[in-house]
TrEMBL record:
GO molecular function (one): ATP binding
Localization: Cytoplasm
Gene that this polypeptide is encoded by: si:ch73-233m11.2
Protein name, entry field: Si:ch73-233m11.2
Domain NACHT: from-to ranges: 79-243
InterPro entries according to UniProt: Leu-rich_rpt, LRR_dom_sf, NACHT_NTPase, NLRP_innate_immun_reg, P-loop_NTPase
Family: Belongs to the NLRP family.
Length: 868
């Protein structure tokens, strides 16, 4: 036991010295060396994802990576695969795990840990036994420690880093697995044999790899590295910058200018950003506003550090530029030494480590080189396009070649085409080629013009991204001409898209419309980004959208600060709480028109299942509370709200009574109110009557169609209308369960001389010829001001036509008459056509769905004023 304990301590000592030995040089692009991260207390445990991790945590909270690894190691399958993209901190996490074991912090029932970087084992072509491999690896372990290891495999942990960089296949089917620890086989066979348990069965494994499907044969717990999300970034910045004020300044700046890019979750990228910010802040220079500017600052910094002359610096960048497209093509995105020479790197070999990742010994032929980040690779490509005519060719050709691979190339070209932005690089490398700049600019102008004329959001957004990188307000104004279709829907944009859209929109002095129709998930972050553009827009369309609480807060604040006059939230599913938040923002806004109607069957076009929302969310304005909120807006005094469409909600009598109070308030400027289908009954009509009679009421249009007002309600409304001074000019009462007595009363109101009504919609009441008769008599009366009358579906027959024609002939005002869905027949057609031809006022007669035969079609068609 003592002996084995000594062996363990020896192993721990070698692990500590072996791993703590700094490896490679620390460069701006390569990330901070793990040892330095750990020793300087900058290690931040990221969150872990993956199916199995969710199983581990019963309460659904994301687990910390360290915890997830430890938990997975104590499970039955003691094989853990750590998956994360390039620069996501895999190596750092592995080294932390192993160092903490060696320091005695955890996993103390393990006696031995073997740590291998598989990328370095690519060159191990020798055949050897497991015993030799172990001894070679931990050279200070005496041979007598090997037997205890072999006897207690459950006390052994193997850690393999860089599995994706291992060039040999580990699938058991391609190896003859070995089971004898003293048998010499190929290294790949050794590793496969360990993985598959023919050697040291029972030992534990932690394997790190970039996302790959190569490991499906391995029974394991997969843990996904989620990288640095916002909280981890904040923690990292705080540890990087010792001064909290500097940390905060840097963090806020990064989140604003870069936080919307996925690659910000990469710890390596965070290190690069912190390093470059620190340099700039120490030199009291401005921090970069865009991704292009970050890359410009990084490259400037790297080149300066090499202290080469202008010509050499340019040659070096050109050599990198030749390598960049080649790396996109090759499978492992890496180049050999021989290839590197062909690009012109000979004299710079000692400096390449600053720009490239070097795997292997620089002097060896097996050494390979690759770019550490795709952004930098594409940036170099864009640079070399401008530096040297002979490398690039035309812009189109370059895009064609990099299609499907490059993500930021067009952005970088745009950023670099601006003289102010590229100046620091030109100072170091010499002038960019003016012809290439011209090529790009003319391509940009013509292709953006074409794209912006099209109705394709994605094509627009691509050019908005480029304009954002160019950071040139005049260029935006030059490109976004009146022919650009900026009113098309930009719904469903990513956060990154929203940033560019906002930039472009805020460069334009006047914004007619911001159309975000069908934004299925308008998040707080996205809304925050768009606040400036929303504030500047006269009209905001968010119909068919769903908004988070945070998004509504930002929308409300944008509108309260801005110039927005119209807001369309049709079929937007706010619910009571969010509606309240919105209303609070509207109280002293310039908003004049709000649409907040809902359809009974929402989501007809939407990908959301209807069940995703509760009933109350679908029918938002259904309580007293929401109407109270709306009332507060209407009576705030500073509100400019004149038009409000809340059709298809559930206002009900209680809600309408609340609104009625507002209508008679002297502060209320509301002129049009649409309450189509809102579960209102006759019970609230006395309140409505009181409001309409109030001297302060300015409501001129009211639509109450599809509510059960009934005879009692209808008669009360007539009382209101009969009062001299009633402001109503348009009244919608279709399908309100009105009766003949109501029609009679309406007729007498219209001819009383008190009514200002110009439009009356009373269709969908089966009152028949006798019922409609009083209305026709009123139309003929000189006091009646009606211009529009809708008696659709009122069971009219040919018997009414004499009165009808007389009314039309007598009226000086009537222009539109709706008679669809009645029972008129061919007999009536000649008279109707004649009266339409004769009438100087009449503009349209609608006769759809009556009982006409084909015989009269020609006659009707000839009269241009009849809609059939
Ligand atoms: C270490 O011990 C714990 C608790 O005794 C156990 O759950 C775990 O499986 C052991 N780990 C290994 C790697 O043997
Ligand atoms: C909406 O966005 C939030 C935050 O990004 C996300 O958590 C949620 O899953 C999204 N919902 C849908 C339906 O896409
Ligand atoms: C009105 O007309 C419809 C369809 O023509 C008919 O079904 C209904 O019975 C009629 N109603 C009355 C009250 O005449
Ligand atoms: C009018 O009649 C047509 C044909 O029968 C029908 O499709 C339509 O729904 C009716 N209109 C109304 C308002 O009911």
């Amino acid at each position: 036991a003592t002996r084995s304990l000594n062996c363990t301590q020896m192993d721990k000592d070698t692990v500590l010295t072996h791993i703590l030995k700094p490896q490679g040089l620390s460069t701006l692009l390569g990330g901070e060396p793990p040892v330095s991260v750990i020793n300087s207390n900058r290690y931040i445990s990221q969150l872990a994802g993956g199916d199995r991790v969710a199983d581990i945590n019963e309460d659904d909270t994301p687990s910390s990576l360290d915890h997830a690894i430890l938990t997975a190691l104590s499970a039955e399958t003691k094989t853990v695969i750590l998956m994360g993209p390039e620069g996501s901190g895999k190596t750092t996490a592995l080294e932390k795990l192993v160092l903490d074991w060696a320091k005695g912090d955890h996993l103390q029932n393990l006696s031995f840990v073997f740590y291998f970087r598989l990328r370095e084992m690519n060159s191990l072509e020798a055949v050897l036994s497991l015993e030799t491999l172990m001894q070679n690896h931990h050279s200070r372990i005496p041979p007598e420690c090997i037997p205890p290891i072999l006897q207690k495999p459950e006390e052994v942990l193997f850690v393999f880093d860089d599995l994706d960089r291992y060039k040999y296949n580990l699938n058991p089917s391609v190896h003859t697995l070995c089971s004898d620890p003293s048998q010499a086989v190929s290294v790949s066979c050794l590793i496969a044999s360990l993985f598959h348990g023919s050697l040291l069965k029972g030992s534990a494994f932690v394997v790190a790899t970039r996302p790959t499907k190569r490991l499906t044969f391995l029974k394991s717990t997969q843990i996904e590295m989620l990288g640095f999300l916002k909280p981890q970034r904040a923690a990292y910045f705080n540890r990087f910058f010792t001064d909290p004020a500097a940390a905060n300044k840097a963090l806020v700046h990064m989140e604003r200018t870069l936080g919307f890019y996925d690659f910000c979750t990469s710890p390596r990228f965070c290190w690069t950003v912190c390093s470059i910010y620190k340099t700039l802040m120490d030199a009291r220079k401005k921090l970069p506003e865009t991704l292009s500017q970050v890359c410009i600052d990084i490259l400037t910094n790297l080149i300066q550090a090499l202290s080469l002359n202008k010509a050499c610096s340019r040659q070096l960048v050109l050599a990198l530029g030749r390598m960049a497209p080649r790396c996109f093509l090759s499978h492992h995105s890496s180049c050999t030494r021989e290839e590197l020479n062909s690009f012109g790197f000979q004299q710079f070999l000692t400096s390449v480590g600053v720009f490239l990742r070097v795997d292997g010994n620089l002097d060896s032929d097996t050494c390979v080189f690759s770019f550490t980040s795709q952004q930098m690779q594409e940036f170099i490509l864009a640079m070399s396009f401008f530096l040297d005519k002979s490398t690039g060719g035309s812009v189109e050709k370059m895009f064609e070649e990099q299609k499907g691979r490059a993500k930021f190339l067009d952005l970088f070209l745009s950023g670099l085409s601006e003289p102010i932005q590229r100046r620091p690089l030109e100072t170091l490398l010499g002038e960019f080629d003016p012809d290439q700049i011209m090529n790009f600019k003319s391509w940009f102008k013509s292709s953006s013009e074409e794209a912006l004329k099209a109705y394709e959001k994605d094509r627009h957004i691509r050019f908005y991204h480029m304009l954002h990188q160019a950071q040139n307000e005049n260029l935006v104004k030059e490109i976004i001409t009146p022919s650009a279709r900026t009113g098309l829907s930009y719904g469903g944009l990513s956060l990154q898209d929203s940033v560019s859209l906002n930039y472009v929109m805020t460069c334009l002095t006047e914004l007619i419309m911001l159309n975000l129709y069908r934004t299925e998930n308008f998040t707080e972050e996205q809304a925050e980004v768009l606040v400036p553009a929303m504030s500047l827009s006269h009209q905001i369309i968010l119909s068919d959208s769903s908004l988070s609480v945070g998004a509504v807060l930002h929308l409300a604040s944008a509108i309260s600060r801005g110039v927005t006059k119209e807001l369309d939230l049709g079929h937007a599913h706010l619910g009571e709480e969010k509606f309240k938040i919105l209303c609070a923002g509207l109280r002293d806004s310039k908003l004049q028109n709000i649409k907040y109607y809902l359809l009974k069957a929402p989501f007809k076009h939407s990908r959301y299942p209807t069940t995703a929302f509760s009933k109350t969310e679908r029918n938002s304005i259904n309580t007293f509370t929401s109407c109270e909120d709306l009332g507060l807006v209407l009576t705030s005094g500073s509100s400019q709200l004149r038009v409000c469409d809340i059709s298809f909600n559930k206002v009900g009598d209680q809600g309408l009574m609340k609104l009625c109070k507002s209508l008679s308030n002297p502060q209320c400027k509301l002129q049009k109110l649409k309450l189509f289908d809102n579960e209102v009954t006759g019970a609230c009509c006395s309140h409505l009557m009181e409001s309409l009679r109030s001297e302060h009421c300015v409501l001129s249009e009211l639509d109450l169609s599809v509510n059960e007002l009934g005879q009692k309600g209808g008669l009360l409304l007539c009382q209101a209308l009969s009062q001299l001074g009633c402001p109503l000019k348009k009244l919608g009462l279709k399908r309100c369960e009105l009766t003949r007595p109501v029609f009679e009363e309406l007729g007498s109101v219209l001819s009383s001389g008190n009514s200002k009504l110009e439009s009356l919609l009373v269709g969908m009441h089966p009152v028949g010829d006798q019922g409609v008769k009083p209305l026709l008599a009123a139309v003929a009366h000189p006091n009646c001001l009606l211009e529009e009358l809708d008696v659709e579906m009122t069971n009219l027959t040919d018997a009414c036509v004499v009165d009808l024609c007389a009314a039309i002939r007598a009226s000086k005002t009537l222009k539109n008459l709706e008679l669809s869905n009645n029972s008129l027949t061919d007999v009536s057609v000649p008279a109707l056509i004649q009266v339409m031809e004769d009438s100087p006022n009449m503009q349209e007669l609608r006769l759809k769905y009556n009982d006409f035969s084909e015989d009269v079609l020609d006659m009707i068609e000839e009269c241009g004023k009849v809609n059939f």
